[in-house]
Amino acid sequence: MEITIIAETQGDNLHPVTSQLVGAATSLGASPTVLCAGGAGADAAAGIAGVGKVLSVVGDCFSTFDGGAWAAAFDAAAGTGIIIGAASAQGRDVVARIAARRSIPVVQDVVAISQGLTMTHPIYSGKAMQEVTVGGDCAVTLRSNTFPPAGDGGSAESATVQQSGDVKIAVQEAIAKASARLDVSDADIIISGGRGMGSPDNFEHLYALSDKLGAAVGASRAAVDTWDEIPHSMQVGQTGKTVNPSLYIAVGISGAIQHLAGMRTSKYIVAINKDPEAPIFKVADYGIVSTWEEALPILGDEIAKIL
Amino acid sequence: MVEIAVLLKQVPDTNAKIVVVNGRVDESAIASWVTSPYDEYAFEAALQHTEAAGGSITAITLGPARADKVLKDAAALGVTKLVRIWQDDWQDLDSNQVQSALANAVTAAGADLVYCGKQSADRNQGSTGPGIAEILGAACITEVSESDSAGSYLRPTASGSERVTVSSPAVVTFTKTQNELRRPNVRGIMMAKRAQIEVVGGDVSASQVNFNGHSSPAQKPPGKTYEGSDSVPEVVGLLRDEAKVL
Ligand SMILES: Cc1cc2nc3c(=O)[nH]c(=O)nc-3n(C[C@H](O)[C@H](O)[C@H](O)COP(=O)(O)OP(=O)(O)OC[C@H]3O[C@@H](n4cnc5c(N)ncnc54)[C@H](O)[C@@H]3O)c2cc1C
């Protein structure tokens, strides 16, 4: 089976999810070709165990993100068969367009994949799962932190192809993030605050804890809607980000179904809430019935002890 | 003047319980159907864009007769061109079929801009906007959180966000914006009652995807709940030793 992976990159570097894409491809018995946009992350990709070949796709289009242009370049560089990308915003865009160019189906946000090609993906924000089979070629994006990553120690051959596409999107102004903090989409540990934090200033307690843990700080929609200081980029849930970290700590969040939609697949969930009836406790692995005012200082001290 | 096609999908209310019966989500158990939330942000952006720049909106949906409701709701906000695409096997259409049916309707509407949600609240795929753009030979800007009538759009980047412009035709997919969809007034609601919906066939080729079934998500074993902040040291210990995430 021929599999081409669209590497997920972060600036000039390879995003760690790329190893997970390779892990999934090798579990299907393939030794995939990895395409790197503008050559970003090509050396790192060649070092992932199981990779057959790395192709740096180099063209003018890769200086701006334009899913149409990128898809055109990748489409020309990729072989037939199965295209795999990450279920990130850019990954979904590019992979959907490659599929449309080839008139093959696209299945996004896959959480299980097996020969056939049979795939499972969440629907209704995780309230149900759908399983489908595609006999022919198809394009797929995989949810991050779901597939075991391939290890290092690979030494795949690398090549460069010149390939570009028409860029139709023009960047007028780049706006730097208000803070240099880690984004919830990239974090392995997330601490989120809800309306129960009482004021945006109290998020400082969450930031302090996140600094200790190397975590990102998220928020419920009620927090985002109530306080201007809490930007939508922090929102987790149905109309915010879907996250899948190893540890999700919900503080002063009731656990409305739309919030759970964005975080219920987190590996471990800790909830701190003063209301023992709060629905967040139904999904929490470890629930602490307490005000955050009492619980957070102790949490900070205990974490400081073990790190 | 702009001609904007807005794609509106009818989905279960986000509070709805989703029940799987015999390998299918039981739609008869869903009490309340609404317009997919991200589509509403796209719709409000289109209303503001046409108000400021002149032009008109065509509202397009794909689905069974119950989906007329989203078009009637659009009519109540002044949209007069309402199109519902209907395919007998609409539930099992694959991504290509959905995209080509919608792209055909966009072309028929003569639209130069397509506004839609970044993904639907039911399938959660996010393929439709970029896929339609590919079929139309258009650019697609995804996850837009701010737009203006001069045709500039704010989208997220790894290091923050950027304001971009695009040549038409273009597809814009919206995430949550600052502008909730406005509510209709009494006159709008009266007008909506008389609104005419054009029903068209999808006219698409065969599906390449076999639907195997729906299932309920795996249930996690119930967790443990501790009373009071005194339990925090114990929980931290468990996170380190049992969960191994610290
Ligand atoms: C279409 C739609 C989309 C939505 N999308 C999202 C989304 O993406 N994300 C999202 O989060 N929500 C979303 N919502 C909103 C959702 O329904 C809830 O309103 C929201 O999640 C509630 O946020 P919250 O838990 O912070 O606030 P609340 O529900 O007000 O809960 C606050 C909690 O804090 C606790 N608390 C109060 N004081 C303290 C204290 N001192 N110490 C400890 N605990 C305390 C309370 O017991 C309570 O449980 C959406 C809703 C709709 C209709």
Tell me about this structure.
The complex is a heterodimer of chains A (307) and B (246). In chain A, the strands form four sheets. Chain A has a seven-stranded parallel sheet with strand order 7-11-6-1-4-5-12, sandwiched between helices. Chain A folds into two domains: 3-162, Rossmann fold; 189-306, TPP-binding domain (Rossmann fold), CATH 3.40.50. The radius of gyration of chain A is 21 Å and the shape is elongated. Chain A contains nine helices and 18 strands. With 307 residues, chain A is of the alpha/beta class. Chain A has helices at 17-27, 42-46, 67-77, 89-102, 203-213, 221-226, 257-263, 280-283, 292-306; strands at residues 3-6, 9-10, 13-14, 33-37, 53-58, 82-86, 106-110, 112-114, 118-123, 128-134, 138-142, 157-162, 169-176, 189-193, 216-219, 247-251, 268-273, 286-289. The termini of chain A are far apart. In chain A, α5 packs parallel to α9. In chain B, 27% of the residues lie in helices and 31% in strands. By secondary structure, chain B is of the alpha/beta class. Chain B is globular. In chain B, the strands form four sheets. In chain B, strands 9-13-8-1-6-7-14 form a seven-stranded parallel sheet, sandwiched between helices. A three-stranded antiparallel sheet of chain B has the order 10-11-12, with no helix packed on it. A two-stranded antiparallel sheet of chain B has the order 2-5. Chain B has a single domain (3-241), classed as Rossmann fold (3-Layer(aba) Sandwich), CATH 3.40.50.620. The longest helix of chain B has 17 residues, at 37-53. Classes of the chains: A alpha/beta (307), B alpha/beta (246). Residues 194-196, 220-223, 235-240, 252-254, 256, 258-259, 262, 272-275, 278, 291-293 of chain A line the site of flavin-adenine dinucleotide. Flavin-adenine dinucleotide (FAD) is lined by residues 194-196, 220-223, 235-240, 252-254, 256, 258-259, 262, 272-275, 278, 291-293 of chain A.
